Structure formats: C-alpha cells, structure tokens
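Deviation from plan, reported transparently: adenosine-5'-diphosphate complex.
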Amino acid sequence: APGLNEEYTFTNFVVGDNNRFAANAAIAISKNPGTTYNPCLIYGGVGLGKTHLLQSIGNSVWQEKDNAKIVYVTAEDFTNEFIRSIQENKTHLFKNKYRKADVLLIDDIHFLQKKHETQEELFHTFNALFDAKKQMIFTSDRPVSEIKDITERLQNRFTRGLTVDLQPPQMETAVAILKKKAEKQGVYVANDVINLICQKITTNVRDLEAALTRIIAYAELVNKEVSLEVAQRQLKDFFSSPTQNNITVDVIQRVVADYFNLSANELKGKKRTRQVAFPRQMAMYITREITEASMTDVGLEFGGRDHTTVMHACQRISSRMRTDPTIEDIIQTLIRKIKEEGS
Ligand code: ADP
Ligand code: MG
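Because the crystal trials were delayed, the predicted structure below was used instead.
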C-alpha cells in the first residue's frame, strides 16, 4: 500500500513463541478489519518487529481490498502534522485525512507522552473511527500503563480492544530469521556464523540483521565465504554494546548458580564434582564471552584459579556446544537472564 514498506509482509515475518500471539492477532485483524479486535495495541522493545507487523496489516488489507483507505503514520509525524495544520489554519484537512481512514495504523504512541493537544486530537479521531467501526492498530515500546503523562481517557481507549506483546526471539527463531534473510539475498552464510550472531545478539532483531548485513557485505566485497574467525573479528563492535558493560562477574555467578540450584560460593569453591564443575565451567565461559575480563581475571574471580584452568573450561564448553545443542540453549538462556539482571 502507498506509504508502506512492501517488504513488511506476514510472509516475511518469522513466527516463534516470542511473537506468535501478536502475529496471529495481526493476521486475524487483516482478514476482518474493524470487527473483533479493535483497537489492537502491539507493544514490545526496540527492534522486535512492531513496525513490521503494523505495516503487514496495512499491506495485507490493501491486497484484499484495493479501495480501502489505509493510513500509516508514526505518532511523531502525526504530532508534527497536527501542529502544522494549526499553524496553517488547515485543521479541517488534518481531521479529514485521519477520520476518513478505513484502517489507521499509528506507530510508536509512546511518543505522545506530554503532547497534550495532540493527545486530545487523537482522542477525538479515535472516537470517530471507533464509532464508524474502522480498524485502529497502535504500537508502543512499553505497556500503555507505563507511558507517563498521557491522559487516562486516551490510555483507556488504547487498551479497550486487544493488547499483544512482542518478546525477544529465542535462539531458534533468531536463527530462522537470519537464514531467511540470507536466503532472500541469495547469499550463503555458514551455520556457525549465524549461530554466533544469534548467540551474541539476544535482545533485538534489528541488531541481528545489522550484524548479518555486515557479514554479507564482507563476503561480497572480499569475495569469499566468511569463516567463524573472520565473523568474530568483523562483529566485535556489535558484540561489545554498552548494555553489556554493567554486567559483573557477581551477577553471572549468581544467575548461573541459581539456575543449577547451587550457591555462588559453591561455584567459586574447591569442590570438583560434576554437579559443580560443569556449571562452573559454563559460568567461566560466559564471563569470557560477555565481559572484558581476561583469563587471569576470570581465574581470580572464581576462587583464585589459574588462567589455564579457565582456558580449558572455555575450550571444553565451546566444544560441547558444537556437539550438543542443549548446552548451547542453556548458555543462551543464561546469557539472557544475566543481561536482564545486569541492565
Ligand atoms: P520495531 O518497530 O519494533 O522497533 P521493526 O519492525 O522495525 O522493529 O523490526 C526491526 C527489523 O527486524 C526489521 O527489519 C524487521 O523486518 C525485522 N524483524 C523483526 N522481527 C522479525 C521477524 N519475526 N521476522 C522477520 N523479520 C523481523
Ligand atoms: Mg518501529
């Protein structure tokens, strides 16, 4: 549809546990706009597919009914347009545009925070469209209750229909997204490179794609397949994002110990039974992966062990990860938890 990115379709959207509810709601809405789930609010963090889903609804309705009036706008543009219409004495044109929509898609409504006049205008737009049984879909980067400085009655309207959320993708879904993207571009990217990206970037699909784009560009410009080592080097700056900087070894030890029903002291202690040794090796591996700590640093943090012990632990875990996907999953889960706690 005009004004929409044609790449943002349901076909191009990979569905996993993290987004199934939202994706199915979006599909249902596009089949019967204005009937059941009105309005729909999609919320989720940055880069998790809000805009993609929102525009997919628009593109899909457009395909079904080519005379439908589909209006997509970011809350920011909505605000600016509204203000300009006041300055130029053209509010009637503004009202006309939005109140005649069959499907109104407003992206990033958290932007309306503190914009009182725009909130007022949107409130009236909402009521007009709602009464006319026109479909509205909104997105927000947080639950509506957490948007500060927004009138209660507007909050109330946003959540009157169906609210769905988007979570960061699990390893499997992240891998599927990147494989699909590489395939679409007709480029072969080795599985271990894709796994590396998905393992390191866990919170945001946009960053996943950016990392893959870098690898694909490298492969094309240097004209050869990218090895794991090259990928590691090429993606170094992606992997050391500032969000990882307040992760301390304490947090890592606590999360890993918790996960295996141990205490942090046991993890740092002398015991070398399998129940303790394996989690300890995992914790060391993770520390090396997501902090700047050297082998020696890690050894000191784990009960004053030698750096060669740390090195062996890391080698052992990486070789087990290559042969046993469940180990990789556990590591992935742990890193996710650690990042949550550390942010
Ligand atoms: P948001 O609006 O939530 O910040 P976007 O919709 O802009 O996120 O998504 C960021 C990028 O990630 C886009 O290129 C989008 O196509 C892609 N993306 C996100 N989720 C998926 C998914 N489930 N399948 C395929 N691509 C996705
Ligand atoms: Mg967006």
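The beta strands are 40-44, 70-74, 103-107, 135-140, 162-166. We consider this an acceptable substitute for the interim report.
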